[in-house]
């Protein structure tokens, strides 16, 4: 049974990794990274309704994503467990971003659930407390709670705000789902990039260290990347599968997208320096 508190259409924006360097493998098996995260004005959407019976359920089927493994369901259950609330939630996920695409879809869904239920359940956790819970769900989840374009280090959880110039992005979506674990465990992955400063990023001396491995394992991604690079400088986001190119002008971005081969799927989106729900975390008793 639902309570009076409910809302529809909460955004879960996509992200891009504007670069990604792998500095080394840590003792715990994770990799030390440097990256820049940027949000897009495209993404999934969630309807979230409070349940008085304490159950956490997803109300709709999503192709390729069983409810029990869905990060947004896991996020709600983790938040309930960490806080001891007796309330539950019904979640409907409008899945628009591809699975295994490197756009952070599942991580963004999870962060939106944490942010919204913190408000609807009346928990009043700080942004820092929510980010700590988010990290338990995955390395990409905290940035969506952080809520700003960010310079990321560690496994991606050490975040520093960064102001980025306005841009439009052509994002192409190859018809494959990438195994991030397989990419990071590949023997040919470069793991010795030097640590850089923000100035080097703005000067353009960056890349995605995962690209050679991903393109070898998934030739379709290489084909999409090759075509996009004939139009503009292009790069893999995260571990893929999606690839992107940046444009200062919206019209140029749409022109390039319209010229793509008919079999190539994707979209055009504007970059954003702020998560659309950022105000909900700053509205807690302190930002954290």
Structure description:
This protein has helices at 71-83, 105-120, 127-137, 141-146, 180-185, 198-203, 211-217, 219-229, 250-258, 278-282, and strands at 2-25, 31-51, 56-58, 88-94, 150-154, 158-161, 168-172, 234-236, 243-247, 266-272. With 288 residues, it is an alpha+beta fold. Helices cover 31% and strands 29% of the residues. The model is unreliable at 1-5 (pLDDT under 50). It has a single domain, classed as Ribosomal Protein S5, domain 2 (2-Layer Sandwich), CATH 3.30.230. β5 (150-154) and β6 form a beta hairpin. The longest helix is centred in the middle third of the chain and has 16 residues, at 105-120. The chain contains 10 helices and 10 strands. The protein is globular and about 55 Å long. Strands 1, 2, 3, 4, 5, 6, 7, 8, 9 and 10 form a 10-stranded mixed beta sheet that branches. α1 runs parallel beside α2 and α7 (211-217) crosses α8 (219-229).
The proportion of residues forming helix, as a percent range, comes to 25-40%
Count the helices. How many? 10
Structural class: alpha+beta
Q: Strand tally, please? A: 10
End-to-end CA span: 33 Å
The CATH topology annotation reads as Ribosomal Protein S5, domain 2
Number of domains: 1
CATH architecture type: 2-Layer Sandwich
